[in-house]
Amino acid sequence: MAHLVPNPPPVDYQKPQITSFSIGADGVGKLLAWGCAPGKNWRVGTDFADEVVSDWYTSTFPDLTYFYIKGARKGMKLAIFVVGDSGSWVRYSEYVEVDSNLGDKWAAKAAAGILNQSSYNSHIKFYPFGAPQGNPSMSEDEWMNKIEETLGTLNRNVIGSCVLRNIRKDIVIHPFLRPYQQAYSSVLINPGQWVTDFRPGARVDEVLLHELIHVIENNARVYENRYGFTFDSSDFLTVNATNVYSCMLGRGLRKDHGPFEYLPVEHFRNPKLHWEQQSPNYWAASGTAPDLVRVLGEVEGFWNPFSYLAQSQKIWGTLAGD
Ligand SMILES: [Zn+2]
Questions:
Q1: How many CA atoms lie within 13 A of 269 on its CB side?
Q2: Which end of the chain, N or C, is surrounded by fewer C-beta atoms within 10 Å?
Q3: What are the pLDDT digits (tens) for 186-232?
Q4: What's the 208 CA to ligand 1 centre distance in angstroms?
Q5: How many angstroms does the Cα of residue 6 sit away from the middle of ligand 1?
Q6: Of 116-120, 272-276, 288-292, 317-321, which range is least confident?
Q7: How far is the CA of 289 from the centre of ligand 1 (A)?
Q8: Which segments of the chain belong to CATH 2.60.40?
């Protein structure tokens, strides 16, 4: 096992000494670590690898590694993690708690339950701490304004506004701090990463809609891979409701949960084929997000296999009614 060491280190730093630490006014944690052998991949953060981001450097002490820790908030429990034999992160030290972060001016609001909220749904709260450490970097206010503006874009569309209406419990949106493109339904997003990507489904409003659909589905894992389409058990409605949205806005459509490829042309030209091949997934979606699927079923004049689901539901409803 390794352990975290305060900076500067005490004389007998080879023994574990701290169970908590504080972060200064620049908002970035600086800790040393004892016991991180070279040649391995290390990080300091929480159990959720993309929540807190760390860079590491050799220190002036031969057996200490210097960590630069971004996105750490008061109350978080940080530890040293290493990439294990299975290729995933394994915890390699005891936890150390963040006592305070003087650079996080939102912490007091979060503790008091008064984080800024979206004007489109008061359950959506913003916690912009860390946005300047994102890549691209932006100020916290700019980050918050861009997310609110994107929620406004969604709200002007019948699908987007339905998704926003269906968020019925509080969610907090945080900046995503890694340099590569990714977003999470927890929700972590860097709006600056999704402005010059022309692949289908990769514009900031599409990415945010996708993550919010996960929220209203409670991250349901009910979908199957069918006919060469990969949905990773959770990403059928996120992709295909967003496809109907994208089509309404004149955008290209995304195939599946793979890396933003185009929907094959035979399925684009013939949404009924998509319905026929994926109908178990369409029925599953009607269970996880009934309101959204009903609204989708009424959208006309665009690529929309949900309309075939709606027809089938009517037939089954009539049979049941008889
Ligand atoms: Zn997803």
A1: 3
A2: C
A3: 889 999 999 989 999 999 999 999 999 999 999 999 999 999 999 99
A4: 10
A5: 38
A6: 317-321
A7: 15
A8: 3-101
pTM for this model (two decimals): 0.93
Q: Give residue 257 CA to ligand 1 midpoint distance, Å.
A: 7
Q: What is the predicted pLDDT for the residue at 317?
A: 77
3-101 sits in which CATH class?
mainly beta
Instruction: Reply yes or no on whether the pLDDT at 320 is more than 90.
Output: no
Query: For residues 247 and 206, is the Cβ–Cβ distance under 8 A?
Result: no
CA 212 – ligand 1 centroid, Å:
9
Question: From CA 23, how far away is CA 275, in angstroms rounded?
Answer: 53
Quote the ligand 1 centre to 77 CA distance (angstroms).
26
Distance of CA 158 to the CA centre of its chain: 23
CA of 209 to the centre of ligand 1 (A): 10
- In 3D, which of 28, 89, 53 has the Cα closest to residue 7? 28
Cα 82–Cα 96–Cα 45 angle in degrees, nearest 5 = 40
Q: How far does residue 145's CA lie from ligand 1's centre (Å)? A: 23
Query: By mean pLDDT, which of 10-24, 37-51, 99-113, 307-321 is the weakest?
Result: 307-321
For ligand 1, the distance from its centroid to the CA atom of residue 311, given in whole angstroms, is: 27
SS3 59: coil
